[in-house]
Design goal:
The structure holds two protein chains of two kinds. Chain A is mostly helical. Helix content of chain A is 83%, strand content 0%. The radius of gyration of chain A is 20 Å and the shape is globular. Chain B has eight helices and ten strands. In chain B, strands 6-7-8-3-9-10 form a six-stranded mixed sheet, with helices on both faces. In chain B, strands 2-1-4-5 form a four-stranded antiparallel sheet, with helices on one face. In chain B, helix 2 (96-108) packs across helix 3. Chain B is globular. The chains are: A mainly alpha, B alpha/beta. Chain A binds chain B through residues 34, 36, 156-157, 159-160, 162-163, 165-167, 169-176, 216-217, 220-226, and chain B through 52-54, 73, 75-76, 78, 80, 82, 84-85, 88-89, 91-95, 97-99, 101-103, 105-106, 108, 110-111, 113-114, 136-138, 154.
Chain lengths: 284, 251
């Protein structure tokens, strides 16, 4: 595989992209999980699918090569993120309602666009479950751009986002502009989802944002440590998932998620073992 | 006479058509330790939210440190420990140090990072509430009383001149409540921090507060602790709407 990696550009694109999303998806996911917004990633990924289907339809029907499904997916995801925020404001007492509304809207639009584009094709299958061969050099550069944006914004607004995640009321009382920061955050989420879809696929993208975090919060002391651990788990999942996906010729989305689940189970077992050892020591 | 820290004049506040507060006039002066008491639904938390700028009154004016609340910018002068402080997400992976650092976020400002001096301040605040040995522990692993101390440290770290506490002893055991009041007393006496404490624990509070406000949609009493304890049981029962006896205990 190493020889092939140096020989084929598509493999290089895939691995570099995989490493980047292994970094940014769990990083942003750390905030998503503690803010109890895990399902928002799912809702946005389904809208991204609608955008991708729209892009595929444009390609097929109008031969508009300059608007790729990657960009239409990203556009739909960003617009949906604005709607999520609006809906959460309209339904203050039922904020989780925003998720099924956006999710079903995304699936509904996807069905319409897929039908208009005369049904499924291999490219759409790649978008659903990820692919080791679908990342172009152009996609890679877009994802490099998204990674730089995500890292810069999170670095600059880390302390405000951390405060909002822990205690929104206290953040507002302290004079933090909660609405603006939250909007920025949900925009980043939309971008990261769009960036991750090429590798893990629409149906599994939220797993890469939540499973490494679910494992890390079992073991970490503090939020920063939890972020570092979740990135390590994310990278292990992506690399192991891509390699096994390549060898077994199956979509990497599946192998990445299965690796993440194995790590999660190990983390749960390690925590339990640690607790039991602690208790035994305390009893001695 | 010391300067007023909070001043409310003829304040009315309604939730849609329901009156929450009517014709509220009161003042807290620098260095005071004010207890705010009243029955559930009497408007105590609403009053706190008005002071914190989370709600705007339909009528009347509020001044903080002699500045109209609409123009007030120095929010770091006010520390707040909310009722919800002990109902936060217990599984949140945040160390004691990380939680207390949030108290400086607003003061440090956007696009700026914590310096060594800020980190020292955070450690000093944790030391002040006697929790230094738990610096790197997750907040969810601490007891209710310990968590409440951490939230006080978070409020203290920005050197506030006014500390507002909304029923901070809910869910804290009796022994720790006593320690908690000792800490408040110390902050008030040694650092001259003005305190506004919302509580149901009327008996214990009368041992520590200098002034008391009784609120049940309108102000029923505003005076010093000696005047409050001189009130008859029937006065208090009228105000609460049911029989109430003042019981104080030392532990």
């Amino acid at each position: 595989m190493i020889a092939n990696f140096f020989q084929y550009e598509f493999l290089q694109n895939t691995f570099y992209t995989g490493l980047l999303i292994g970094l940014i998806a769990p990083l942003l996911g750390s905030f998503i999980v503690v803010r109890r917004l895990s399902l928002i990633a799912d809702a946005l990924s389904h809208v991204t699918l609608a955008g991708i289907a729209f892009g595929l339809m444009l390609e097929k029907k109008f031969a508009l090569g300059f608007i790729t499904p990657f960009y239409t997916g990203m556009g739909f995801s960003v617009v949906a993120s604005v709607f999520v925020e609006q809906l959460r404001r309209v339904y203050k007492a039922y904020q989780e309602l925003a998720i099924p509304i956006i999710l079903s809207g995304g699936v509904g639009l996807s069905v319409i666009f897929i039908s208009l584009a005369d049904g499924f094709n291999t490219d759409l299958f790649n978008y659903l479950f990820g692919s080791v061969s679908a990342v172009s050099r152009g996609d890679l550069w877009s994802i490099v751009g998204i990674t730089i944006i995500v890292l810069t914004v999170l670095l600059l607004f880390y302390k405000e986002l951390f405060m909002l995640s822990f205690d929104e009321e206290h953040a507002v009382v302290s004079g933090i502009h909660a609405k603006r920061i939250h909007f920025l955050f949900i925009l980043l989420t939309a971008l990261v989802i769009a960036a991750s879809i090429r590798i893990v696929g629409v149906l599994l993208v939220s797993a890469l944002m939540t499973l490494p975090v679910a494992a890390s919060i079992r073991l970490a002391k503090g939020f920063k440590q939890s972020i570092v651990l979740s990135i390590i788990f994310g990278e292990i999942s992506v690399v192991a998932g891509l390699i096994s996906g390549y060898y077994f010729e199956i979509p990497p989305g599946g192998t990445i998620v299965v690796t993440s689940i194995i790590i999660l189970l190990l983390a749960i077992a390690a925590k339990r073992l640690g607790l039991n050892l602690g208790r035994r020591r305390a009893n001695q | 006479m010391s300067e007023p820290v909070i001043s409310m004049k003829n304040v009315n506040f309604n939730y849609e058509n329901k009156t929450a507060l009517k014709n509220i006039n009161f003042e807290i002066r620098q260095g005071a330790f004010m207890g705010l008491i009243g029955p559930n639904g009497g408007g105590k938390t609403t009053l706190i939210k008005l002071i914190l700028g989370l709600f705007k009154p339909q009528k009347g004016s509020i001044e903080l440190f002699n500045v109209p609340i609409g123009k007030f910018k120095n929010w770091d002068k006010i520390g707040f420990v909310s009722q919800k402080a002990n109902t936060f997400n217990q599984g949140f992976p945040a160390t004691v140090e990380e939680v207390v650092s949030m108290g400086l976020t607003s003061k440090v400002g956007y696009l700026k990072f914590f310096t060594k001096q800020h980190k020292q301040k955070i450690r000093d605040a944790i030391k002040q509430v006697g929790m230094s040995e738990y610096l790197n522990e997750n907040i969810g692993d601490l007891s209710g009383g310990q968590q409440q101390r951490i939230f006080i440290a978070r409020a203290l770290v920005s050197d506030p001149e006014l500390l507002i506490l909304d029923e901070p002893t809910v869910g804290v055991d009796t022994e720790n409540v006593q320690k908690f009041y000792e800490l408040l007393h110390q902050l008030n006496a040694q650092r001259n921090i003005t305190l506004l404490l919302v509580t149901h624990d009327t008996g214990t509070m009368t041992h520590h507060a200098t002034d008391i406000v009784c609120l049940n949609k309108t102000m029923h009493f505003h005076g010093n602790t000696a005047e409050f304890t001189a009130l008859s049981d029937s006065d208090l029962s009228d105000f609460y709407g049911h029989t109430l006896n003042l019981v104080s205990h030392d532990h």
